[in-house]
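Operator note (shift B, R.M.): manual run for Polyketide cyclase requested after the automated queue skipped it. Running by hand, logging everything below so the morning shift can see what happened. Input copied straight from the record, untouched. If output looks odd, do not overwrite the archive copy; leave it for review.
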Amino acid sequence: MTALYIVGGIVALILLLMIIAPKKYDVSRSISINKPKDEVFQYVRSLEKMANWSPWDEKDPNMDKKFTGTDGEVGSVSYWNGNKEVGEGEQELTKIVRGERIEAELRFFKPFKAESDCYFDFKGDHKSTDLTWGFSGKHKPVASIFMMFMGSMDKAVGGDFEKGLAKLKGILEG
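Run finished. Output pasted below as returned.
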């Protein structure tokens, strides 16, 4: 009988955690780049050039990468398969509003299956650009419990966004 109470308590705890755990995440970082908005937009829209400034490419410079479609156009896809830090997945450009916004879908295959939305917002003029890089999605129930104990998604990827944006700024301004 005691075992039944213990199992019931564990199930109740898991259900409670699933109810109170965060279901959605939205992480974004911004940077100001001293280059015209159109120039920044053209560079960022290229999935192939992303390897020059992506913080994840530094974590595994030998990862297997493949590109399909016309680079920088809706429907182009960047596939990667790397070490445990970067896993396996792909990014597909899904919407481009010229000079203003780029949207992409991220599909992760390993170490876990997940989908997220990625976006870049551009504000500025012919002298400088304010660029925002964002990432949003929904946690699966078990992942939401995991994130309660491991820290927020903001803590998990926010620093990587900052590092990538700083490197991008250095490339474009350098």
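Quick read of the result: The chain has one domain: 2-173. Residues 2-173 form a domain with the Alpha-D-Glucose-1,6-Bisphosphate; Chain A, domain 4 fold (CATH 3.30.530.20).
Leaving this for review. - R.M.
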